[in-house]
Write the structure tokens for this entry.
Amino acid sequence: MNADAGPGHFPEDSVGLVQARRVAVETSLALDCGRSLPRFDLMVETYGELNAQASNAVLVCHALSGDHHAAGYHLQSDRKPGWWDNCIGPGKPIDTRRFFVVSLNNLGGCRGSSGPNSFNPETGRLWGPDFPLLTVRDWVRSQAMLADALGIRQWAVIMGGSLGGMQVMQWAIDLPERVRHACVIAAAPKLSAQNIAFNEIARQAILSDPDFHGGRFYEHQTIPSRGLKLARMLGHITYLSDAAMRSRFGSELKLAAPSFNFDVEFEVESYLRHQGQSFVDRFDANTYLLMTKALDYFDPARDYGDSLPDAFRRASARFLVLAFSSDWRFSPARSREIVRALVDAGRDVSYALIDSQLGHDDFLMPIPEYHRVLHSFLDRVANDIETTRGAQ
Amino acid sequence: MNADAGPGHFPEDSVGLVQARRVAVETSLALDCGRSLPRFDLMVETYGELNAQASNAVLVCHALSGDHHAAGYHLQSDRKPGWWDNCIGPGKPIDTRRFFVVSLNNLGGCRGSSGPNSFNPETGRLWGPDFPLLTVRDWVRSQAMLADALGIRQWAVIMGGSLGGMQVMQWAIDLPERVRHACVIAAAPKLSAQNIAFNEIARQAILSDPDFHGGRFYEHQTIPSRGLKLARMLGHITYLSDAAMRSRFGSELKLAAPSFNFDVEFEVESYLRHQGQSFVDRFDANTYLLMTKALDYFDPARDYGDSLPDAFRRASARFLVLAFSSDWRFSPARSREIVRALVDAGRDVSYALIDSQLGHDDFLMPIPEYHRVLHSFLDRVANDIETTRGAQ
């Protein structure tokens, strides 16, 4: 018996102990690459209760390195909750007293969903590099099959930041009748050449690591830790603003004088090395490659003659688009491109620019103004659910 | 006999065929790291003629990956001239009819000056990682010894971009009596945490390459090409603005549809891989590490109680500080820090912000407004030389 095992040790506005579950989808999924998966698993967490009309469901889409564990704790002893815990829970913006929240590990992920580090049922061996590369459209298809399995015909709202926001846009365009509200946070309508350049260097770091073995590193009992570490360090540069790095780490030497070797001499070096190493311990290199490619390929306008307004004319959701002033990975200018296209398409859209300091990572932070905007938006979603229920 | 070997095949405003020479400094050089070099060589090119008073000498300091070959051609068959050829020559901003221009490969470089890929006279073997790490102050000391060897007591002007501009500042502070004018282009008074972060990832890419062998890769008949390639690719992201990348490469797929593999699919990938590979063929990994460390250590205010104005109070040169609007590696805000400190120190300084598109690399480009500002500044330098000569 563990004295800490009883309830009541979590904050009152926490969803508390949660358990992930594996949803097996036994239907074939045709992918953009031309291949198909005969079946697949998705790891899922849910918070709150689905109402009788199944009209209060919220889908949370994760970003590059996220997973299904968005809120609460897996163990009483967990020191850290899920990645968006500050936003999901009783009384929080995504209020679990009102909403049924669904969070999944995307297909191709490495936290239990079918992906490169899962077993290929046809061979009985790990997929590795043979797992197909995916697009955001593929994710939308797989998430729609998950919605079917959960009995959710239409999402009250789909929301996500960064790559998560791209999934929101793709949902609203591809399956408009299944998305009532769409919340696109810190995203872009497609990557810039500079965004692609960062991804390409991260991929080259992994692909050129001698321990990568063409992606079959599992069979060699090794992992391409050098390459994955570099890729993550590089990512972190784009997640933080120059000013945030300055205020968090400064650029003063840790010692009074240089050491004249390659040991850690500046705080930011120590931070990056730590971030890189801890990522190696928890993430899969093939999944990282797959995620960066999904980002590079994202371009919903491509199917509509390169016209983003034409793409959005398919959508019927009410949109909220959020950007952060200090974000230089997907700057406010990129969010305004989304808003402009939605306006041109005659769609219902609100836009908020949140004054922020940290950079792209601010979409994960409990910035009061940000959470007020989400609260207000989700209040309207909740009212819409009530109105619809009343009308039935 | 080569039919192309005759003169007259170069543009009229070119310095034409030039030859590098090795200047041997047979004096011991005490370094900031506490070690010293009993002697050293510097590879040098000069353009134009030193006047009788030795008062028309211009020192050009190179940036991270530059060398002594700043102008003209080594061979009739050379397709590319030196790295700052658009700025140096008869009638060009640094007019070789008026000035005697000195350009060197810095100590620790890899193009013939004493450095990691040169021989350690004490062991008869390549220095490799045993070559001492250097600071910008060390470079100033070594360049002062070169000036002595060339009979130059005072430089009419010292100029350089990026890391070159840092050498200019350090010269003006450390040896004020030897610098009459100082031209600091696209530089910063010290690196930001983000700048250091980029350098750190580049270093980690090299240091973690299994072919690096602790810097003794020469002895293993190999080079850490993967790491050096990644380092250079990463550098290129910081040399170009987001907008320049967009206009040069776009972010459209090269093919109509994704290939769903890791081949080149976007123009920017092709560009980066090419830049990375060609760098591997011409640059030394130990020198790259040394150069990035010299950047990180640069902080002339450190010796003056972290007060940059106090540092500049030592200087007596007349300054020109130049920044480029599209430069995000060392943004105009960083140049304004330099200008503000010079003003606070009561020094003579002009500042020009050049409207530009390309990014940091613009300091190498023949932008008309940029060259007009340099022309005008160097006209004043030439007049100053004439006045001084007349007064003697």
Notes: The CA atoms of residues 209 and 227 of chain A lie 5 Å apart.
